[in-house]
Amino acid sequence: MTKPDTPTLDQVAGPADLRHMSDRDLGRVATELRSEVVAAVSQTGGHLGSSLGVVELTVAIHAVFDTPRDKLIWDVGHQCYPHKILTGRRDRMHTLRQGGGLSGFTKRSESEFDPFGAAHSSTSISAALGFTVGRDMGQPTGDAIAVIGDGSISAGMAYEAMNNAGSEGRRLFVILNDNEMSIAPPVGAMSSYLSGLSDLTRKGPFGGLMAMAEGMEQLAPKPVREGARRAREMVTGLESKGTFFEELGFDYIGPIDGHDMGQLLSVLRAAKTRATGPVLIHCCTVKGKGYAPAEGSADKYHGVAKFDVDTGVQAKAKANAPSYTGVFGDALTEAASRDPSIVAVTAAMPSGTGVDRMAKRFPARVFDVGIAEQHGVTFAAGMAASGLKPFCAIYSTFLQRGYDQVVHDVALQGLPVRFAIDRAGLVGADGATHAGAFDIGYLGALPGMVVMAAADEAELVHMVETAAAHDSGPIAFRYPRGNGTGVTLPERGEVLEIGKGRMIREGTGDVALLSLGTHLSECEAAATMLEAEGISATIADARFAKPLDLDLIGQLALTHTALFTVEQGAQGGFGAMVLQAMAGEGMLDHGCRVRTLCLPDRFIDQAALAEMYRDAGVDAEGIVQTVLAALQQDRKVVTLHS
Ligand SMILES: Cc1ncc(C[n+]2csc(CCOP(=O)(O)OP(=O)(O)O)c2C)c(N)n1
Ligand SMILES: CC(=O)[C@@H](O)[C@H](O)COP(=O)(O)O
Ligand SMILES: [Mg+2]
């Protein structure tokens, strides 16, 4: 890769250097910064499109505001690569999203320029408002600036924050980065409203000037504003209403061209000088700006693998098995073709969850609610209450955002919502914020909830069929990010008996490995390693974390020296529920030793997935070491291989 020529950017060791530069040089920094982002991400992969869309904005904010004393909070944080380069992390960008390297999102522990961590969307305004209270109560902090995207502002939490900010009336800057894109094309009435507002600017230079004039006038005293508005109405012949944001108590500036450094600098400087309360600056940007392959792609290169800068062609590893997401999407579509009452709900991630495959055949039965997991869950609950069979497809980590809705609107009412929980377990490069670590525990605790975990892609097909057939209450099935094992897929899934596990291989009674989910493969590898140590291992696939197969567990406990549960989830999940059941049933009274292998009580930062599970101690070697320790082999605990 040829290193871009960045003579002006090279003068920037930190944001303070920007504040001594001419506006012209700031424009040069932005141009060079964009090339730097493209070059860096071409080597690491990551969230390219959103970062390219905020290059000018990032330079302008750091040039105008006194970061890190002023707190710049990026919503989601996936667009923070230009920010990281300008705030002293340029030399570490080659470690992005890798073990021991830079996080792909903002992270407090990584830099003083990251005042608030992110990755889950729509939190920035709440956090920024919190900082303004700290400032006003004497904490050593300056202004707070939240940069939130048009997708992220569709989440309820953003409105909760604006509602509060508007009544608090504290000086606060919210910059709406409106690129008319989420991961998928935007949905929702707010998106249409924003398009209406930004039409003026997107129409070209005249529109931009008008918008800027309008924007600047927002900061003038009320009488002047009224006069300007009347003048504008005369000129345009259009009634000029206040914006939604002004109705909430914000001064609204814009829409402005988020790539025009001159506009950005003058609006930010004016806003900083004059704002006395909450201000929303509406910036129109382009996701993937300045890099043709990104701008020209449907997803604007939202998340990319390493790529060739000249061609934009991504280096995607060839998969030798279908992705779990794809298997789910196809199985759901097949089930939907047989049952017209099946519908699907996604929260702004149709392709990430695979429901886009169903949407291709049944567009009227797939609903993208935007980034609105809370609404999505209860929306599905209403569908279920009406008699439909909703599949609510949400990543494990993002379902956390709608948990009370799962409890209060689904489980408490026993409504048959089907939860397709993708990205269950650790996820690799997205790191701790995206780990699907907690769903077994947080769902298993709910009365009436059925919780399944697929051991491979064939099992996933069966679980989709089982969920479709399960009408007596809520049911969830979890599966990991990535590709399957290559096992043959059934033409059509079979309905599994609820609460029944399956025996995979019978040993001679030394140890039993009770697996939940796709770590069945690690259990099989561990069994082979144990055999080499003269230890026979029985393997069973629990299939269900709830209800548990007590007959299977009791049988294993009675006939084995030791029982080990293995799961891709945090403590308080499958192993805990097995132990609690065994205790209740007296299965612990006969001397069977029990160990639960689950994720450790700490967050695990991004790394290669296998490395993360090794670190967690739940890979094959971790299982073997735990077995040997539990059997208290008097020989030294061997390390089977480095
Ligand atoms: C609560 C939550 N749900 C879903 C996601 C997945 N996600 C990450 S970025 C994104 C789209 C964000 O769109 P926008 O705010 O417009 O930012 P852009 O990518 O356009 O810069 C989504 C849905 C998330 N990070 N958090
Ligand atoms: C930033 C964000 O939250 C999403 O883009 C997420 O990174 C997608 O994860 P997958 O790559 O697993 O679909
Ligand atoms: Mg967007």
Describe this structure in a few short sentences.
With 642 residues, this protein is α/β, with parallel strands linked by helices.
Could you characterize what this model shows?
- Its EC number is 2.2.1.7.
- Keywords: Isoprene biosynthesis, Magnesium, Metal-binding, Thiamine biosynthesis, Thiamine pyrophosphate, Transferase.
- GO terms for molecular function: 1-deoxy-D-xylulose-5-phosphate synthase activity; magnesium ion binding; thiamine pyrophosphate binding.
- Homodimer.
- Residues 1-23 are annotated as: Disordered.
- With 642 residues, the chain is of the alpha/beta class.
- It has three domains: 67-77 and 89-290, Rossmann fold, CATH 3.40.50.970; 324-478, Thiamin diphosphate (ThDP)-binding fold, Pyr/PP domains (Rossmann fold), CATH 3.40.50; 504-630, 3-Layer(aba) Sandwich (Rossmann fold), CATH 3.40.50.
- The chain has 26 helices and 17 strands.
- A seven-stranded mixed sheet has the order 7-6-8-9-11-10-15, with helices on both faces.
- Helix 6 (124-136) packs parallel to helix 7 (156-168) and helix 8 (189-202) crosses helix 9.
- The longest helix is centred in the first third of the chain and has 22 residues, at 23-44.
- Mean pLDDT is 94; it is low at 634-638.
- Bound molecules: thiamine diphosphate, 1-deoxy-D-xylulose-5-phosphate and magnesium ion (MG).
- Residues 50, 53, 76, 78-79, 119-121, 149-152, 177, 179, 181-183, 287, 347-349, 371, 373, 398, 401 line the site of thiamine diphosphate.
